[in-house]
Design a protein that fits this description.
Keywords: Hydrolase, Signal. The protein is an alpha+beta fold. The protein has one domain: TIM Barrel, CATH 3.20.20.140. The protein has a 15-stranded mixed β-sheet that branches. Bound molecules: zinc ion (2 copies).
Length: about 400
């Protein structure tokens, strides 16, 4: 009897606990994100220019590189039609003083490309690329590398730079708060298959309400030797992974370094397997008038009405090629579509929830585009042709 009473008591306690749990669920969290009631209109979808480049390259100012002076990288990038370049040497190899190494290199100064002021912030807690349209005091970022995030974040803010997390699922992954980031390297180096976990991490960050741009970066360290005598054990890498594997496209309002960084921050970005591969364009028609109202990176209020999305490949495509489009909604597969024809385009319709956040992004797989300048790259990047950044609904612009 006594034991039974004790059991009843335990049951009542459990029920009480459940009541508390129900009460907690109904409790309005002071941290709940308020649904935005108005959002700034998206920037022009037509006034701008698509620019392509590589956001992660090491020159001779990184100690483990070989046969890769700045002039060689720039000449190669120019020869394959690149518009901009971020040479991101390891800052720890020069004790943080990139200003007097990479940026002061006469070949850097003479480059006809749009050259971002950049460095790979190389720390015990992982790697990130600092990117800027103009020179900044990188030494200060280097000096705070072992401090807590609150200190690092304050310095980063003062420097007014774009910070990008590198190879998030690999060795030396970015191990600081993602709240400090404007973008994430979701395709590092030529081998697409190694990036599945980076894409998963990106989806988790996007699902949490972070408007984090996804970008590419070859992380190339080794140039092709001019003579056999200059070859190193790493020289074969130049045949498989070099500038443009992958290529990051940005829709910039002008052909300036500032416009490149701004477009990158805004997420008007797509990534292609190489500079000659088609560019993925992803737009949304909100009012079903046949005209696109949003592009990648844009954020709009959800009305509860269906939205017509369009996926298009820009640039030349091989005759008879067919492509597979995978649509991701809030981190989950939504649909699989086929693309074919001379100007491949496909549309789909979905209704973003009227309340709460939604995002859509697309990945396009298909036949690889030849990149004869880096002849072993195509097989390693296949089957990925390119992917978009997300189109967002109801994201809090102040988060
Ligand atoms: Zn790195
Ligand atoms: Zn690197």
């Amino acid at each position: 009897m006594r034991r039974q009473l004790r059991r009843v008591g335990a049951l009542l306690a459990l029920l009480g606990a459940q009541q508390v749990a129900v009460g907690q669920a109904a409790h309005p969290s002071p941290w709940a994100t308020a649904a935005p009631t108005a959002l700034p209109p998206p920037a022009s979808l037509s006034k701008g220019v698509w620019l392509k480049g590589d956001l992660h390259v090491h020159s001779r100012h990184s100690k483990e590189s070989s046969n890769n002076p700045v002039g060689k990288i720039v000449a190669f990038a120019q020869s394959v039609g690149m518009d901009y370049l971020a040479i991101t040497d390891h800052d720890n190899h020069v004790d943080g003083d990139v200003a007097h190494h990479t940026w002061a290199d006469p070949e850097f100064q003479a480059s006809p490309l749009l050259m971002l002021y950049a460095a790979e912030w190389t720390t015990v807690r992982g790697h990130g690329n600092a990117l800027s349209a103009r020179p900044y005091d990188h030494q200060r970022l280097y000096d705070v590398r072992d401090q807590r995030d609150v200190v690092v974040g304050a310095v980063k803010k003062q420097l007014d730079i774009h910070l990008s997390g590198n190879h998030p699922s690999g060795k030396d992954h970015f191990g600081y708060s993602y709240d400090m980031l404007e973008s994430l390297e979701v395709w590092n180096s030529v081998i697409w298959a190694n990036n599945a976990n980076a894409q998963m991490i990106w989806d988790d960050m996007l699902s949490s309400g972070r408007r984090l741009t996804g970008r590419g970066g070859s992380d190339a360290h080794h140039g092709r030797p001019a003579t056999p005598a200059e070859a190193t054990p790493n020289s074969p890498q130049a045949e498989a992974n070099y500038v443009g594997t992958p290529t990051t496209w940005v829709f910039a309002t002008a052909r300036t370094t500032q416009a490149v960084v701004d477009a990158l921050t805004a997420g008007r970005v797509s990534v292609s397997m190489n500079p000659f591969a088609p560019r993925v364009e992803f737009t949304a028609d909100l009012n079903q008038d046949g005209q696109p109202d949003l592009m990648m990176g844009d954020n709009a209020l959800a009305t509860g009405q269906p939205v017509r999305f369009r996926v298009q490949l820009a640039g030349p495509v091989p005759a008879g090629a067919t492509y597979t489009v995978r649509v991701v909604k809030n981190g989950n597969p939504l649909d699989t579509l086929q693309l074919a024809g001379k100007r491949p385009a496909v549309e789909f319709t979905d209704t973003p929830a009227a309340t709460g956040r939604t995002y859509y992004r697309v990945l396009v797989e298909g036949p690889p585009t030849p990149y004869p300048q880096v002849p072993k790259s195509m097989a390693l990047s296949a089957p990925m042709v390119g992917f978009s950044n997300p189109i967002y609904f109801n994201l809090d612009p102040n988060f």
